[in-house]
Amino acid sequence: MSQAADGGLMASKPYIASGKYIQRMSGGSLCADCRFDPAQRSGERACPYTILYWDFLLRHETRLAENPRTVMQVRNLARVSTEERAQIQTQAQRLRQIG
Fold first, then answer.
1. What percent of the chain has pLDDT over 90?
2. How far apart are CA 81 and CA 72, in angstroms?
3. Domain boundaries along the sequence of the chain
4. How many degrees, rounded to 5, is the angle at CA 2 between CA 83 and CA 57?
5. CA pair distance 78, 10, nearest whole angstrom
6. Diameter over CA atoms, the chain
7. Element (H, E) at 4
8. Directed axis angle between helix 82-98 and helix 48-59, to 10°?
9. Neighbours of 3 (CB within 10 A)
């Protein structure tokens, strides 16, 4: 997400990852003993990394839709209901207040 801060001067695609991606790339070892589910976008068991990933997409949806390298993520976001979008944003706001 830090790569998006420069407006695309250094990289054409922000490096963003969900908890599911982190789980997959670690061979499951980083998530093995965690109480959160990296596959859940929202809810009580949703992984904080996944929540923040989807919140980032929501906050930057318009800009990311213009980038051919991030359009797939925006298409996936289009399938998320209005109710779940609101829940993701609420949970993300709480996480940012904690940390």
1. 67
2. 17
3. 17-98
4. 20
5. 28
6. 38
7. none
8. 110
9. 14
CA 38 to chain CA centroid, nearest Å: 11
Query: pLDDT tens, 63-73?
Result: 999 888 889 99
pLDDT band per the 50, 70, 90 thresholds, residue 80: very high
Give the whole-angstrom CA distance, residue 81 versus residue 34.
Answer: 27
Contact 94, 78 (CB under 8 A): no
Alpha helix (H) residue ranges in 26-81: 48-59, 61-65, 71-77
Is residue 66 helix, strand or coil?
coil
Place of tokens 């695609």: 13
Q: Of 1.10.10.10, 1.10.10.60, 1.20.1070.10, 1.10.10.1710, which CATH number belongs to 17-98?
A: 1.10.10.1710
Helix, coil or strand: residue 79: coil
Query: What does pTM read for this prediction?
Result: 0.84
